[in-house]
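Our preliminary data section would be incomplete without showing what the modeling component actually yields. Below, a chain of 168 amino acids is followed by its predicted structure, encoded as tokens that our downstream tools consume directly.
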Amino acid sequence: MLFRSAVFTEDWCGDALTSSPSVLKLATTTPGLQVKVFERDKHLDLTNSFLPPHRAGTLPVFVVFDRDMQEVARFIETAKELQPLVGRMADELRARLLDPAEAEKPMNELTPESRAKFGSARAAYRVAHAPDWGAIVIRAFTATVQRGLALPPAERPAEGGTEWPPKG
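Predicted structure:
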């Protein structure tokens, strides 16, 4: 069976750096799957057509279609199971790198120096954890596609990835 997948991503996004390489590696090793990668910023309207209005602009977005170009599954941002690990990473880096006066501030309120220091450390942390985190993303993405394939076409697509606002 032939499947097609659209990936909307940007290389400046932390979740894209965690999720996109893992899903794209899976795609290149899966017989019968064709993948097209889109730069989200150049295709914002198309990307947003796969997102609920309150998630407009979110990335990455992975969409899987069957041979008739009917949507089977969509996976938004990253694995829900990964969110606690990403949160712990941010807390750890803030405590270790930032002055206590800045540690609780939102990113856009940090000094440019602190924002740069935090951003570099966050990227290095994600790279160091890429194999483990990528495996989590692949399991969640694969489960979403399998759910979509099990659904009757009228009930598709299966949706996976993060939710906003987070539940729980």
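The longest strand covers residues 3-9. The beta strands are 3-9, 33-39, 61-65, 71-76, 158-161. Preliminary results of this kind motivate Aim 1 of the renewal.
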